[in-house]
Amino acid sequence: MGVMLTERSLSTLKRGAALALIWLVIAGPEPGSWIIGLPAVLFATWVSLLLAPPLRHRIRLLPTLAFVRYFLVESLRGGVDVARRTLSPRLRIAPGQIEYQSSLPEGAFMLLFGACVSLLPGTLTARVEGRSLTLHALDIGSDPLAQLEELEERIRAMLRERGEGYGD
Amino acid sequence: MNESMSLTIILPLLGALLAAAWPRRGVFIGITAVLLSGLAVGWLWFSLLADGPSHQALGGWDPGLGIRLQVDALSILMLSMTALVALAVSVYASHYFTRRSQAERFWPLWLLMIAALNGLFLAGDLFNLYVTLELLSLSAVALTALGGKRAGIAAALRYLMIGLLGSMGYLAGVALLYSAFGTLDMQQVAAQTGDDPVSQAALIVMTAGLLLKSALFPLHFWLPPAHSNAPAPVSAGLSALVVKAGFYLVLRLWTEVFPDTLSTQGVTLVAVLGGGAILWGSWQALQAERLKLLAAYSTVAQLGYLFVALALFMSAPPGVARELLFGALVLMALTHAFAKSSLFLAIGVIQHRAGHDRIAELDGTAQRLPATTFAIALAGVALIGLPPSGAFLGKWRLLYSAISLDQWLLVVVIGIGSLLAAAYVFRVLGHAFGRSALSVQAIHSVHEEWPALLLALTATLLLGFGSAWIWPFLEHMA
Amino acid sequence: MTEMLILAVVVLGATFALALLGMLRQGTPTDRILIAQLLGSNGVGLLLLLALLQEQLALLDVALVLAILSVVVVIAFTRRGKEQADA
Amino acid sequence: MLDVISLLLIFSGLAFYLAGTIGVLRMPDTLCRLHAVTKADNLGLGLLASGVLLQLSDPLQMLKLLLIWVLVLAASATGGQLIARHTLDQKPNGDPPEDAR
Amino acid sequence: MKAGALLYLDLIMVILMLVLAIGALHARSLRHAVILFIVFGLVVALAWARLRAPDIALAEAAIGSGLAGALLLAALRDRRPGDDATRRAPVWQSVAVGGLVTALVVLLAWAFLEVQGGRANEPLANIVQATLHESGVSNPVTAVLLNFRAYDTLLELTVLLAALLGVMSLGPQRSPMRAAEPMAAGLIGWLIPLLILAGGYLLWVGAHAPGGAFQAGALLAAAAVLAHLGGRREFQLPGHTRLRLLAVAGCAVFTLVGVSTLLGSGVLLQLPSDWAGGLILLIELFATASIATALFLVYLGGHPPSWNSREVHPDA
Amino acid sequence: MTLSNSLPALIVASSLLPGLIIFFLREGSHRLRSVLNMFGAILKLVLVAALTWGVFQDDFFETRWQLAPGLELVLHADALSVLFVNLSTLLWLVTTVYAIGYLEHSPHRSRFFGFFSLCVSATVGLALAGNMFTFVLFYELLTLSTYPLVAHKGTPEAVRGARIYLAYTLSGGLVLMLGAIWLQALVGPLEFVEGGLLSQLPDELHGQLTWIFLLLIIGLGVKAALVPLHGWLPQAMVAPAPVSALLHAVAVVKAGAFGIVRVVYDVYGIEFASDLGLLMPLGIAAAVTIVYGSIRALSQDNLKKRLAYSTVSQVSYIALGTAIFGPLGTIGGVAHLVHQGVMKITLFFAAGNYAETLGVHQVSEMNGIGRRMPLTTLAFTVGALGMIGIPPVAGFVSKWYLGSGALEAGVAHWVLPVLIASSALNAAYFLPILQRAWFRPAASSWPQENIPARRFETHASLFLPPLVTAALALLFGLFAGAYWSPVEWAGLIAEREYLR
Amino acid sequence: MPDAATLYGLLGIVLAGLGAHAAIVQRDSIRRLLAINVMGVGVFLVLIATAYFGPNQDPDPIPHALVLTGIVVAVAATALALALLRAFERSDDE
CA–CA separation, B244 vs B226, rounded Å? Predict the structure, then answer.
């Protein structure tokens, strides 16, 4: 390959590849499907790039896998927690609102953070403005802040500023 | 042969697509498409006369699996009515719209409406009829709202709701029929209907839906606002053609699909409603303050005649008189189509010239538009059912049957209806003779005045004196 | 197996209905929006089970579409509120 | 054997669905109900989907199932936020005016 | 036994639908009614799935509930305050109509039960199965829609076009939305590509499995609606001429295929067996584009800078 | 296409086509319109002469055109129709001349003459109608074509009068139509045959036939202005004079009277009608009308109104003659169809002349008018004397036959008093007019003198027509025994009615 | 014991009835539109119920195709109705 891939075309390729994979998953292996699939993927890629510009950070693989594992366990815990609370005869809840300032970069990762918070035990994101988060907690007494910080740490671990790993 | 059947639908449809894609050429495309589809109807005439009634399985699939188009005497007459009225109205419409944007919106919808009408008159499949009905009512509704006035939009909205309700009723019947007989083909269904509960239930809901759509009293309340608030060419199309679609379907269903299902009570009910329509519609027309409203209520009344005729037809014993009544019924429908479209176009001319259509203030205008006034007079004659219109012959046979069947109440109703019709027609014509500050200047705009006059002449002279062949032509239908 | 699946479907259906009706009963307007969310999870579950039960893998596609559309509905609902707040 | 695991997963999924539903019924306000719906139901669906997954043969179908689950997960996480925000935005004024009608 | 147990699910669904329907019809607040209607649609989609009608389930979810819902909500938003939405007929009328409708329902139900009692196994379904190989596709629903009863489908596309033309003639309905808050924007950002893929998939899969042009078109339209809801100005709509052509294209290609068969064999829409598959895909491709365009434009209420370029409507 | 099956149609067309063309002429093409009118009128006269000769020879003329199965347009010439056709054709010619002069300066002449021609076409069609359907068709067409003529002036009174006229005649037409349809439902499409055909029907239908007769007579009675259906006639006198002349003498009321004659003689047959006991009520209705009309005429100061009530009275002589069983009564009634026509048209022409020339509308304004307009007043006098029944004017002959007929039929005990009373009343309302016109001194000035007296008292086209018709009235009276006279022709009709 | 087809079919009929009733009784346009749509769903249910032969048996595809067509038509009509409604509300005091 004579041409050095620019950052942009690389992320385009990645986006395209991801979408192509999704196509493969939903449409199956039949080669004929690409008659429609190829234009669809191209179109979707174009639109996707238009809507969500490439991230300014790179994702590191291993911490990401670790994050997925953490996330799965936490959401399991979240489910169990909420089930326990509701099924207990006294309905053990003490709802309240919490404001939280995150140090994550604004944008996609804040959104990821917000989304994940909703699946953690006892917390629910209600509003994201810049880096500040409004949370709703099911049990204000159970100190949700600790798990928020852990989540934030794990997300930060996943990402790496662009240029950190590679030279220019 | 078969091509011509499809062409009567495809040609206006193609025209509509072209006009939608290329609105600047709307007038040219519109007139051409209407002409061509008229020619296709002509071609269909030739094949029908040569080969007799026939049908065609679309897509080459057997009826049942596929959809069937069919043509017979009744449908070709309806097609011809559509073609002629549409042509005259199109010529009129080509110069009617003052705003270019309105004209550009008119043509594709107008052509879609014609395609839907042709499709409806040719359809031999119950579900396909539902789709054509919807196409018809949606394009008609959109056309109704074309004026952009608040009243027109409100009327269109109501028209749409009623149309939807009606077609849902129809569709419910279709669903029931399919679940019982496993087919949608009209002939195949007809072979299985009887006086079983399924047939009866289906007949009732389908008829109720269609009566709503064809505005039979007291389900007519939506019609006057819709027909009186649409632009004149649209009103003409609606009153002359679109309401006929519902009636045509009821006619088809009663005579062909459910011949053994219909009960005497049902027929009586429709006769009573028809009578109510005649009286109420005529009375309201007499009260109307605007010409278009008058014409619209007159449509309500005229539909009453058609349904009364249908009820009499259904209860008449087999024989020549019954066959002739069928002819009369069709002739009345045709006459009304030409007369009413003529009336609306003429009213449109008056509206253009006078800026309003208030009956009480017409004195000055009518006299300056002799051809238009004459058209109104002729159309009025046809609406009253006086000679030399086709409706006179129709009404004669109608009364004949009513008397033969000892339906004296109907005789009285028809009589009163005729007098009321005369009253409302001559209320308008009286103004034509009223004295006014005269500067006699006839307008000589061929596009504007002649379509109405020609339509009126068709309703009176042509259908009155030249329609003897219609009866024997329709004979096998009865 | 089939019997158990049927049982599962019935239980899920009942759960779903219960939740729905409950929400309708207590309903503030936003509670009703919640229903769309509920449909996203319960409905998809129901579809998956039905897919197994009726041996219709096409229902997976339906589940996919339902999942996407329930979000679309949520967005449509909430966007409406946003507009209103702006107004 | 596979059937048993599969059923086990499915029924445990159902249990969480049930918990979510009870949550919906018992929770005092919209936001609390949202907790139940997002968390319990997601877990329910996850378990149920894995139960169903075991019954499939085609790996691509399995992936599709996974995709659906992820989709619902993501959707309810973000959708939940939208609803929560909507609720918060409305709280000061109570119900929007047309609801009062 | 098996079917008997499943009946409990059916009963639940039936009760649910009844409750939702009654709620949608008679809820005191109009907004509640609309929401309940949308939910009703989603539940109905489940019922379709239960009745082995995934094609319809897809369509119901996408068109019946998704897009119709968006349309209804948009209409609600335009509602002027003070419009009395609770006005209804006086009680005696309501009761009278109720009696009449009840009688009809009983009649229909009786007839329906009569049918269920002695229903022959559908011969037509067998004919469809037997003829399927000639149709060019292996999904029987698509075969019926695009081959056996293609004429209906052509007219149906035309109905959609008529509605679109009608909506357009009423002029533009709305100004662009404000940009969405980040959460919604993020959600929309990844939903839209997914919708596009799903739409493409349904279009492709329609030939041999549930799916097809309508579901696909509806999903694409939903994607566009979503973009609009997000207030994304990145999307410049194509020019009105192109949009118009796009909206007409499906119908036009379908009609042209019809005309060419008419010229070739003398029978409208008689697709030659060998070519049927390809032709159907061609038709569906354009139909999808047109349906998506039409549904979206219908949502927008015609094209914002007016149907006719000469008249410039001020963006309200 | 031979003469025998086209002549009736040609006779109708000879006024119809010019009429239709006239509609499209520009208002200013006065000469062309007059030429067309005269051409049509004269052509019609020639055609009618041929027809008359043929019928006299017992030739067969019939045009058939099927409009629908069972609904056939039949134009058929027999002795009775020839009589009516002759009357209308002759008087149309005269009236056309008169109208051209009368309307010289009024607006809407194209419209007027168009409908004028249509009106005569309808009348002729009615006269030639060979079955009930055709009769009803032309009966309605007559209504339609006369309405614009009545409304012609466009004044509120004219429009109102026309509306009343229309209300009456359309209702009448409807009733007539119902009767005709009922009859057709009973016996099929019925053609007019001398002597009628209904007597062959079984007895159980007689009840229905009586009802049908009632409907038909009511329907016809409206146009024939039988009391109490006469209300429109005095209102319709708002029409221009030529129209009134036409309405009263040729077209409308005559159509009604002619229809009664048709129904009694050629549908039911006079004997059958007598057997059913239908003649007596008809006769009584006629008698009541005769007396009532005359009494009302007495009190009218408006000349045209007085003439209108006179028409109410006089036309019923025809019905009366029809109701008297026996050839003499028939002759009296049928002959009066013509006699009343020429006399009444004379009177209306004269009245029109007074109004147009001097603006005289009221009887009270007519003092000394005989000296200012001697020719017109002479014609008026002849007409008036004829109406009273003074020999040798034609009116006397009719009354004579009616009286003899009553004696012959044994109904003299009530017919003769009616005749005598009516004549006395006629005298009572006509003689004072004559007295004023000839013997009272003229007022110092006329209400509105439009046409100054130069060589003649007024335009030639105005005073010549009444002179011609007055002469005819005299001739028909003087030469009642000549073979061409209406009375002789009525005798021919009576002969055919009673002998077949 | 009734089967599923009967159950859903009857439900369809009842829904159609409920829809029809509301469409007549309600005066608000949006409500009427909802009612008509509910009615449509009812009719569609009857059709689909007819096509249903059992949880593991292929259904009759023709009603499926009909209902698909019906849904598109219904949406088209709904869209037009809503557009009319909104145009009506905009055309305030013309």
Answer: 15
CA dihedral F468, F472, F473, F474 (to 10 degrees): 100
Contacts of F69 in chain B (CB under 8 A): 320, 324, 327, 468, 471-472
Same domain (yes/no): E71, E185: no
In a domain, E122, yes or no: no
Whether residues E177 and E77 fall in one domain:
no
- Between B384, B430, B472, which is nearest F69 by CB? B472
Same domain, E79 and E192: no
In the predicted structure, residue E85 carries a pLDDT above the cut 90? no
F371 and F388 in contact (C-beta within 8 Å)? Answer: no
Is the CB of residue C75 less than 8 Å from the CB of residue E66? Answer: no
Which of A23, A36, A111 is closest, CB to CB, to E182?
A: A111
Closest residue in chain F to residue B394, using alpha carbons only: F68
Interface list for D 32-71 with E (CB within 8 A): 71
Report yes or no on F359 lying in a domain.
Answer: yes
E145 with E30, same domain?
A: no
| Rounded Cα–Cα distance for residues B174 and F159 (Å) | 55
Please check whether residue E238 lies inside any domain of the structure: yes
Pick among E204, E234, E281 to test the A interface (most A CBs inside 10 A)? E204
Identify the domain boundary among E40, E65, E83.
E83
Residue at F347: amino acid letter = L
Cα-Cα-Cα-Cα dihedral sign, residues D64, D70, D74, D80? positive
The structural domain count of chain F equals 1
User: What are the boundaries of each domain within chain G?
Assistant: 4-90
Q: Is residue F90 one of the residues assigned to a domain?
A: no
Instruction: Please tell me which of the candidates E196, E203, E234 has its beta carbon nearest to residue A43.
Output: E196
Give the mean model confidence (pLDDT) for residues F61-75: 89
What ranges in chain A are assigned the alpha helix state H?
7-27, 34-51, 61-87, 108-119, 145-158
Whether F367 is in a domain gets the answer yes
The domain containing residue F333 runs over which residues? 278-500
pLDDT, position B339: 96
The CATH code of the domain at G4-90 is 1.10.287.3510
CB B398 within 8 A of CB B324: no
Within 8 A of C70 by CB-CB distance, chain D residues are: 75, 79
**What ipTM score was computed for the predicted complex, to two decimals?**
0.91
pLDDT tens-digit readout, F158-203: 888 899 999 999 999 999 999 999 999 988 888 888 888 888 888 8
Q: Closest approach of chain C CAs to the CA of D30, in angstroms?
A: 6
Per-domain residue ranges for chain C?
Answer: 2-86
Mean pLDDT of chain B: 90
Contact at CB, E113 and G75, closer than 8 angstroms: no
Closest Cα partner for B270 from B255, B250, B252, B243? Answer: B250
State the pLDDT at residue E305: 40
Cβ distance G81 to B127 less than 8 Å, yes or no, reads no
> What is the count of structural domains for chain D?
1
Give dist(CA C64, CA D67) in Å, integer.
Answer: 8
Pinpoint the alpha helices (H) of B288-369: 291-315, 320-354, 363-368
Q: Residue E63 sits in which domain range?
A: 1-83
CB contact under 8 A, A36 and E182: no
Residue E88, domain member (yes or no): no
pLDDT, one tens digit per residue, over F214-270 is 999 999 999 999 988 988 988 888 888 888 888 877 888 999 999 999 999 999 988
Query: Does residue F194 belong to any structural domain of this protein?
Result: no
Name the burial class of residue F362, with classes exposed (0-12), middle (13-18) and buried (19+) by CB atoms within 10 angstroms of its CB. middle
Q: Which residues of G touch E112 (CB under 8 A)?
A: 6, 9-10, 13, 46
Burial B96-119 (b: 16+ CB within 10 A, else e): bbeeebbbbbbbbbbbbbbbbbbb
In which element (H, E) is residue F371 found?
Answer: helix F369-372
Q: What is the pLDDT of residues C22-35, one digit of tens each?
A: 877 776 777 777 87
